Amino acid sequence: MLKVEGISTKIGKIDILHNIDMHVNSGEIISVIGANGAGKSTLLNTLSGLISPTSGKVFLDDVLISGLPAYKVIKKGLSLVPEGRQIFSNLTVKENLLLGMYSTYYREKHQIEEKLEKIFSMLPGLKKHINNLGGNLSGGEQQMLAIGRGLMSDPKIILLDEPSMGLAPKIVSEILEILTVIKQELGTMVILVEQNVKAALKIANRVYVIDQGRMILNGSAEEISQNPHVIRAYLGIK
Ligand code: ATP
Predict the structure, then answer these.
(1) Which domains occur in the chain, in start order?
(2) Structure confidence by residue, pLDDT tens digits, 18-60
(3) What's the CA-to-centroid distance between 37 and ligand 1, angstroms?
(4) How many whole angstroms separate alpha carbon 163 and alpha carbon 175?
(5) Which atom of ligand 1 is nearest to the CA of 210?
(6) Whether the model pTM is above 0.80
């Protein structure tokens, strides 16, 4: 379980996140939705140790992970798939994936091969590109690669920052369906940050709504999709 207690974060001198409480139960996919600039990326960057919170605590399976640098947070079992994918264009698909393992203890060749096979079995179409350069993949393939790389450290929880960005609707559905497969096959908890609210509501168990750095609503995906504020602000239906 991930427990976030009263997290506040500043960027420079500006308060961005205000007293954020949230939790993710084991086996859950959580979507975080909110407008541009609401603080979604800052939240993920804070949880993953890229930014230190000014107050509050984050626990993963009762282990305190807030205040640790990002490379230690990964070792504790939290992996971030960053906004914009951040694939290494000049490295092959396999090399990109192996970079995701640096924090683990897999060293034997057969363990590495097994791990890669498992990842490829969940990410359709990636294996045939194993020796191709990351920069030569399509946007959707790069997103799958970024997810694969995030899974290589065997995380307890994976955080995804706008995986649908710039992708065609059909590819978006494919990518989001993979999250359900990951949850079922690996038992990984998921936090999904998405501007594509309709798609995010479809796959989430529960949803948090962030507005100007504050969590203003949370509930089951069904409750949130019927909430008048959410309908007005994010679903574009009267
Ligand atoms: P988007 O969907 O546009 O990525 P978001 O919800 O992820 O938005 P954040 O990127 O977390 O929002 O930004 C939250 C607020 O923090 C915004 O007002 C943004 O302008 C500000 N902010 C983020 N990064 C910086 C920075 N490096 N310097 C100054 N302000 C920043």
Answers:
(1) 2-235 (3.40.50.300)
(2) 999 999 999 999 999 999 999 999 999 999 999 999 999 999 9
(3) 5
(4) 8
(5) 6
(6) yes
